[in-house]
């Protein structure tokens, strides 16, 4: 039951007051990722953890001008210990909360001197020692400091050098690494004890530091991949990391276990990274989002192998008019794909030049080679409409997300609603085009599928009449339970109130 409230901290805090059993259940969720839960750096959270520190740590802090909570405001002895519930240690959020505790407002934090910075880092160090020593369930470490500037780069090595850190690294299942520092030494130190990672996330930034004259840094970094017994998930984000091809060469050591690989905002200098990936034939999820220089030639290594276990493929990215290598890769999956997602057009990306639509040879391949597809996301153009209709005919789709181009004004009056498969239960339509309630009425009259979710997003032309049409459909089909409308729509609160008499959930929240 409590898992339903994981993102509802207000409800979880109320659960703390019911009884001890509910307290323990709610606390296990609230304290699983204590420094990730608050939206802003939390001074109170630091106060709570300081109160758990031993006398030695408190003395060290006091000697350096970091005073624990005044005795007059100290709470009674703890009747409940939170530390066993902590599973996620986020270094950056811990650091930001420590800064908030010491310096107060944001402006004071920005003006801090090296001496003040050392006080903050000392507090972080003592809290890390406590967490590593007293939180035996930590299995996730986020060591991505992003754009945080430390006065000394040796800061990053303090955590791995702590006496009990090897116990932490030995049980880590997920590691997130990134920031303004050379990562070789850190990743090498972690790899000495960290052998059981399930997920590795690496975040490269434009400001990343690398020694271009030596490959030693690269060797130390890639050693973390080699040292894993069974890595399942690899996620690489951002930056123009010039050694990405070399860094990914050891990926072959994980070819039997690797099942999910994601690239976000990655610049591909060559096909090297995908050559390394081609050996991982047990891939189930492959994602490319907002990557650069991802050309037909870049994809060639993947066109010559068969990912027959690939279930989910996402490409939300720029690409060329023709993408033969991608089409061949999809064909080689031999019908294993269950979910394919391309970018839809919306307000944010409509104005960007060369925003990707699906090359015709790719959507044609999908219509012929993916009979087991149950989730499909795409942008529909006049040129691709025929193949899109073939997909509707040949696949038992369960979820469909589409955006409509400005020239495709006849979408609501096309054959599409009559072709929707009876298996479909989720339909999302994104459009900035003007359409009338009559257009929507005609579409839904021809739609005979048992939809449970209908999302009509981004259009500012949705009004009360459109909502009445949706309610009429809900009464006729008796399956529709969730409707979301764009925030910018013309639908009134009164119309929504009446619609809720028929539809369980209906909100103007955009897309859910």
Automatic annotation (TrEMBL):
One of its GO terms (cellular component) is SCF ubiquitin ligase complex. Gene3D superfamilies: Ribonuclease Inhibitor (3.80.10.10). GO terms for biological process: SCF-dependent proteasomal ubiquitin-dependent protein catabolic process. It comes from the Eukaryota. PANTHER family: PARTNER OF PAIRED, ISOFORM B-RELATED (PTHR13318). This is 17196_t:CDS:1. It comes from Acaulospora morrowiae.
